[in-house]
Amino acid sequence: MPATVLVGLQWGDEGKGKITDFMAGMANAVVRFQGGANAGHTVEFGSSRFKFHQIPSGMLHKGVTGIIANGSVVDPEGLLSEMEGVESRGFDLSKLYISDRAHIVMPYHKQLDGAEEALRGANALGTTKRGIGPCYADKSARLGFRINELLKPDALRQKLEFVCRVKNAYASALSLDVDIDAGAIYESMLKYSGAITEHARDTTGMINSMMARGRKLLFEGAHGIMLDIDHGNYPFVTSSNTVAGDAYASSGMSPRHPIRPFGVLKAYSTRVGAGPFPTELSDTVGEHLALKGMEVGTTTGRPRRCGWLDLFAARHAIMVSGVREVALTKLDVLSGIDRLKVAVGYEYDGRKLRDYPADASTAYSVRPVYREFRGWNDQLDEGMKRYADLPQAAKTYISFIEKFLDVSARIISVGHTRDRTIVRGKISI
Ligand code: IMP
Fold first, then answer.
1. pTM above 0.85, yes or no
2. d(Cα 326, Cα 7) in Å, to the nearest integer?
3. Is 143 exposed, middle or buried (0-12, 13-18, 19+ CB in 10 A)?
4. ∠ at Cα 335 (330, 337), nearest 5°?
5. What distance in Å separates the CA atoms of residue 161 and residue 182, rounded to the nearest whole number?
6. Among this protein's residues, is 100 annotated catalytic?
7. CA of 287 to the centre of ligand 1 (A)
8. pLDDT confidence of residue 308
9. Which pLDDT value is given to residue 21?
């Protein structure tokens, strides 16, 4: 049985939290395989609202194992406080496991993230300042700390002295206002070490053994494909691979086990932080999307930029992820807009582009080619249970998306809560 890999097809914030939660009810385990506390997944049911950053959002279902795999970066203090918050609301996290190979986000990663952004000035990337870029950079530079190192305090202390010397030298060479104290960091690591290592496991072995036993695994992508370090709008991206194929390398699952990539696509586009956004709207429609869609960043509280659905970008995301099935989210937000537009191509320098541009400066200068659709006024969030209940104009919009992207829209979300979900046919994982 393939493992389902849920990925966002835009710039994040597609509503993956809700769809993960929906699918996790059928899973034995939910795996976060990349990213860290920069992610923010919101799940709502009844009058309860949960905001997950590092804990797999599917863990609200009883009995589901949660795994933070090796490709993730863990901010221990943030994770422990998130766990405390979830546990205090009566949920059991004893089956949350953290890969002993996952890297630790150190305090200086967060300081350097902020300081480097300030140094970039007008060219800032708009990161979440959660230390993600500096942590992944240290992982590649082999200066990082992994969860298993918490088990050997003496070696940890020695390495910390060396790494902090390197970090301080870097900070002072760039005149960054950052002071990195190895002793203080060591003390704080000792404080949380026990609570974290209690959950540390060889999750690679765990995942492979579960797959071999026919267990149902759901991999939960943390960010959108357009933020992928290789396939997104570099450098306006996050620092990990977000494509479905990364589920293998970032969890250690053997490629002998098949995956089923499942995409999440919001019915319009949003982006947080800097970077090209060809379909961005700064008019009343943009305001409508922001207000009705409550488009504010879950992690940073920043307002999200809003725009028309960009199918040219989504087609690229689908190609690099192998997606054939999608959940279309927040369709209800489009109610009340007279004419809808979707981008079906880009023109650059008077030519129609065949492929999504690798270069961010090209993506900044393209002119989207739009296709227009009639909108609808009906409010979709009341009593829409079946596909047939949707207004004809909404069905036309969905059919066009399916045809253009060569996917089937298996789930249509028309509100934030679990009950506002239209499922087409039977969905299993
Ligand atoms: P970083 O991941 O904090 O380094 O930020 C890099 C870029 O990715 C910035 O534009 C962020 O706004 C964006 N980003 C990171 N995580 C998310 C997310 O969960 N949703 C939307 N954008 C994100």
1. yes
2. 9
3. middle
4. 120
5. 6
6. no
7. 22
8. 98
9. 87
Is the distance from the beta carbon of residue 357 to the nearest atom of ligand 1 less than 6 Å? Answer: no
| Distance (Å, whole) CA 297 – CA 272 | 7
Q: Binning pLDDT at 50, 70 and 90, where does residue 48 land? A: confident
- Tallying the residues shown for the chain, one arrives at 429
Using CB atoms within 10 Å of the CB of residue 40, give its burial: 0 to 12 exposed, 13 to 18 middle, 19+ buried: buried
Per residue in 272-293, pLDDT tens? 999 999 999 999 999 999 999 9
pLDDT at residue 60 in the model: 85
Which phi and psi angles does 167 have, rounded to 5°?
-65, -40
Gap from CA of 245 to ligand 1 centroid (Å):
20
234 C-alpha vs ligand 1 centroid, how far in Å?
12
Rounded-to-integer distance, Cα 313 and Cα 333, Å: 21
Residue range 285-309: mean pLDDT, rounded? 93
Q: Indicate if ligand 1 lies below 6 Å from the C-beta of 227.
A: yes
Domains of the chain are 3-86+204-423 (3.90.170.10), 103-197 (1.10.300.10)
> Between residues 179 and 351, which one has the greater pLDDT?
351
Kindly give the pairing relationship between strand 41-45 and strand 48-52.
Answer: antiparallel
Average pLDDT, the chain: 95
13 among known catalytic residues: yes
Q: What tens digit of pLDDT does each residue of 89-146 get?
A: 989 999 999 999 999 999 999 999 999 999 999 999 999 999 999 999 999 999 999 9
Q: 235: cis peptide before it, omega within 30°?
A: yes
Residues 311-324 as b/e (b if ≥16 CB within 10 A, e otherwise) read bbbbbbbbbbbebe
What amino acid occupies position 203? T
Which residue, judged by its Cα, is nearest atom 21 of ligand 1?
A: 12
Q: Which backbone phi and psi does 217 adopt, to 5 degrees?
A: -110, 135
Angle between helices 153-173 and 182-197 in degrees, nearest 10: 130
Whether ligand 1 lies within 6 angstroms of the CB of 13 is answered as yes
